[in-house]
């Protein structure tokens, strides 16, 4: 059975192995690091599948109900879902828009896990790589990244999208705080914000916040379609 999180017992989870007096209080840095390593391995084993369930929900909305989606994908010949998990979103797009050649860029262990699970699809190509280093045209999730990483990922994307007509674009599917169609959705977005703060160096962002990130990454304009429940579809143009 998985060991209990030493920090959870103390109501703290962020700074694993941070040292100092806390280590003595919470049972020592070594125990925390061992727990963290085991937890990470478990997370890595289940991540592609668990995440896929959530992205299936988003994918269904994306290709099913989002009124403007056909227009969004019109003229798009190829697309890379950077950090695309088990490929659920890319497969849904490939099924709904057969003219779009879809690739999933993922970390090698995720690509291996998907291949081993044998539920990949010939409609989608999986490429092992690091999105911090190189990204072809992409549709990706940014909400678990820090501001610096968002800018870095967007810059990598900008380098790879076509600058010739028809020009490429980056599609971001993420929460835009303040664009909530209901109180329940706003509450869901704020819960996600809390999760991102606790689990990752990320956050949910308002439109003004996104605007600054897009400008810093060198993009000139964007269009937000708040049609995906708690998330919006943001088209970002060089
Ligand atoms: C929050 S998940 C999103 C998965 C999927 N796009 C979705 O919406 O369900 C982030 C994904 O990014 C992948 N990832 C993290 N760092 C990466 C990197 N440097 N290069 C490529 N993929 C990465 C992870 O393996 C994980 O599957």
Automatic annotation (TrEMBL):
Coiled coil location: none
Keywords, ordered alphabetically: Methyltransferase, S-adenosyl-L-methionine, Transferase
CDD domains in alphabetical order: AdoMet_MTases (cd02440)
Region (Disordered): 1-25
Keyword rRNA-binding (UniProt): no
InterPro entries linked to this entry: COMT-like, COMT_C, SAM-dependent_MTases_sf
Biological-process GO terms, alphabetical: methylation
Signal peptide: none
Keyword set includes Lipid metabolism: no
Gene Ontology molecular functions: O-methyltransferase activity
Cited Pfam families: Methyltransf_2
Domain O-methyltransferase C-terminal residue range list: 36-219
Record-linked PANTHER family: O-METHYLTRANSFERASE
Designated name of the protein: O-methyltransferase C-terminal domain-containing protein
């Amino acid at each position: 059975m998985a060991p209990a999180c030493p920090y959870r017992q103390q109501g703290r989870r962020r700074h694993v192995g941070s040292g100092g007096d806390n280590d003595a209080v919470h049972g020592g840095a070594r125990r925390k690091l061992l727990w963290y390593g085991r937890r990470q391995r478990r997370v890595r084993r289940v991540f592609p599948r668990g995440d896929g369930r959530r992205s299936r929900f988003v994918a269904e909305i994306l290709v099913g109900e989002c009124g403007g989606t056909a227009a969004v994908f019109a003229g798009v010949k190829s697309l890379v879902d950077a950090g695309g998990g088990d490929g659920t979103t890319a497969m849904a797009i490939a099924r709904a828009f057969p003219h779009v050649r879809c690739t999933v860029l993922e970390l090698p262990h995720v690509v291996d896990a998907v291949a081993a699970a044998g539920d990949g699809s010939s409609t989608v190509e999986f490429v092992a790589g690091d999105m911090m280093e190189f990204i072809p045209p992409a549709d990706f999730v940014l909400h678990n990244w820090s501001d610096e990483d968002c800018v870095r990922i967007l810059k990598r994307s900008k380098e790879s999208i076509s600058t010739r007509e028809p020009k490429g674009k980056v599609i971001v599917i993420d929460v835009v705080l303040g664009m909530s169609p209901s109180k329940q959705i706003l509450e869901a977005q704020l819960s996600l914000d809390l999760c991102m703060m606790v689990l990752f160096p990320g956050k949910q962002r308002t439109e003004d916040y996104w605007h600054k990130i897009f400008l810093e990454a060198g993009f000139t304009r964007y269009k937000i379609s708040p049609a995906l429940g708690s998330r919006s579809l943001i088209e970002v143009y060089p």
